[in-house]
Amino acid sequence: MTTRKPSVAKRRGTAEPIKLGALEKDDFWLLFKAHAFGDENYEEQESLSGIGQKIAHKLKGNPLATQTAGALLIEHLTVEHWTNSLKNEDWKSLHLSSGIMSSLKFCYDELPFHLQQCFSYCSIFPYGYQFPAEELVCMWISHGFVKLDDSSASLKDTGWYYLTDLVNLGFFEQVISSVRQTSYSISGLMHEFARVVSRTECATIDGIYCNEILPTVHHLSILTDSIYSMDDQMSNIPCSRKFEAKLRSSFTSVKKLRSLVLIGQYDSFFFKAFQEVFQKEHHLRVLHLSATSADFHSFLCSRVNHRHLQYLKLQDSHVELGSSPQVSSKFFNRVLDGWLTSLQTIHLENCGECWIVPSLKRLPSLTRLFLRNMRKVREVSFPSLEELVLVEMSELESCVCTSLGDMNSSLRVLDIRNCHALKMFDLLEKHHSFKMKKGSWLPNLRKFIVYDCPHLEVVIPLRPSATFSELLISRVSTSLTIDKFYMETFEIRPNSLLGESFGEMRLDEKILAFHNLRDLKCLEISFCRNLTSIPLISFHQLVSLESLTIVGCTKLFSSDVVSAHTHEDMIAADYIALPCLESLSIFSCGITGKWLSLMLRHAPAVKKLMLNGCPKLTQLRIEEEENGQSNLNPASEASSSGYQNGLSASSDPDGLWCIPSNLTTSLKTITIERCPHLIFDVARFTSLEELQILGGCPKMLSSLVHRRLLLPQSLEQIAIYEECKSLTALHGMESLRTLRALALYSNSSLELLELKPLTLLEDLEIVHCTSLVPLEGLRSLVNLRHFKVVGSLTGFGESCDGTIFPRLESLTIDMLSRLTTPFCKGLTCLQQLKLYDLKEARLTDEQEKALLQVPAGSPFSQL
């Protein structure tokens, strides 16, 4: 099915939706000619073909738009008719009974009025313009488009809901413009449609091209890039003079502007025309300037009424030294004189060296401050804000808030990146944060990014709030990096600036506020090589944690001695520190058997256990229920090593680890890799569905072979990636009647594999098992769907006819000679063929013929 609404595709689809973009230029021209010329061969007429190319360019690769335009053009195949269509853009008419615009109009009419306002307003920006979400929402709020409902959501949150609705309905699309920066744009002819439906409220002067501007227009954009590029290309035609005349003639009727957007280059001709037509009674709420100059700032200071201005953005505004050195100061002196009392948002970006950012405390309505690449700015002073964004402020040294208490409660977004000279921010300093009660530090903060500020000491921000949607603290003067890019995931890494220079540390409440992470579901601690312990009392705060991954923490839980505070933590934690944990993965760690035992006792719901690179673990012992409770004795009964009864270090080997008996009936997946001394009885895990031995576990596999592969009957998947010289035959397969997937890798000694009992097997992989003879019981694998055979079973397929594997869908082979065997010729359900690690340079004629002569009924024959 097809749909214009991404939300419908996501809800109804059984797979990831495929986004259909614009047609490529050459393909689109072929489609255009079919609709515009019909059966007539008019494309050879250079005049019509040239006009057609221009019309096709305006249709932006949209097939439905081509159908609409073609139906209009084919009525009269004359230069005059096509030229008028190009000029008037007749295909954009909303009065057509069918076509692209009527289809979009139907969707637009279904929108509630507030979403219609938000969408149509954006038509004043040029095609392809990328809106940062915060910018877009702030402009909507400035014009009163965002209305609060009965919920407790703020205006900003409600604006985000509006944007999400417009994305889900297909009117906007997400654009990933940079790391951690998502922008939005109106794509294709949707932008043209927005201009059509908004013509009474919004207008655009794009160079010398401009439709009629109605007196009712409140929102205006002026784009000049095409003017100056045309002057560069055609120096004999003074396009800027034509633009001046167009501006005078079209702009005089506009009396009540609320938005003014200027994008492009501006010179004296523009200023002269603009000053003549711009009236003081304009009560601007949004002023967006890009690539402006000192003269224009001077004009704005003297002629524009700023009392109603709520959103100000100045971008790429350069003031050359020696020309007008006081312009920026003059502009912001008006700020300090109270002219901008309604201003809510200030956005300054890539402005010149003479820009001065004074104290902004006299702006009572200011809630959002965005500064980027403001050279020579060394200090910023501001009132209480909801959002503060500082990016690439190369010489900024200090940030001062004039009302710390108010800002602590109001701040929702704090984003500081690449401020290499920043040393002081009073909101983040200890003396301020310690005045706050526990849990009250920045209680409403949603987005917190402090990145690549090497001189800024951030201590308290390591105590995250449960309301965070995004958190990153990296390359600052702290010992750890914390990254929480999604709501329910959290990653802790060492600081890339400090490396391993800091000493041993204990991850507790003094560093990380575990009590604020009650909604956390996934936690990963990566390569913190100096991290030695995490108190169980801290883990106890993670009541929703489902997945815990520890990677490369070589000192964590590596001591055989469990200290007294661990038992205090156990008691305080009511004996269950990780009640919801389902997946525990430990990679490249020095964890001892005693610590692993302790963790598993406090994780009664674990279903998946992965141990990779844990050399200290040896034998596993199943702990009976009556002994399993012995660790609940008070700490005073503990042995000198910190373990009681079943965990006593005095009688047990150092590498022994114990598992409560209840886990033997709940564990579903066990994965073991690079644990050279580990051995345990897999058959005791009666609910085990997946077992993987992925190399570096020689004792584990040897013990299984010695027991004649004694495995639980519940197994559905087995993967063995391990060389074992004593493994010449796999016995005991007759009990695995539920097995659905079997993978055997790098077993050069394996000679015999009995498959006859495995009638439910669906996936079979045999790789580099060089001694394995052709398999027994292949005809029993009537449900096999995926088969991979590489470096194994030489001669396989020659003695097999095409009736085996009647349901095989995917085949992976490494020898082209297998293509000519009777086995391959009978695979009527094959959909995917993978040729792996081929030694042959090319197909022989016989092999190519075999590949092309796939049975007619096979789906593979159509690929």
TrEMBL record:
Limits of the Disease resistance protein winged helix domain: 124-194
Keyword annotations: Plant defense
Molecular function GO labels: ADP binding
Domain of life: Eukaryota
Pfam families: WHD_DRP
Region ranges (Disordered): 626-647
Bias kind Polar residues: ranges: 628-647
PANTHER family cross-referenced by the UniProt entry: NB-ARC DOMAIN-CONTAINING PROTEIN, PLANT BROAD-SPECTRUM MILDEW RESISTANCE PROTEIN RPW8
Protein name as catalogued: Disease resistance protein winged helix domain-containing protein
Organism (species): Triticum aestivum (Wheat)
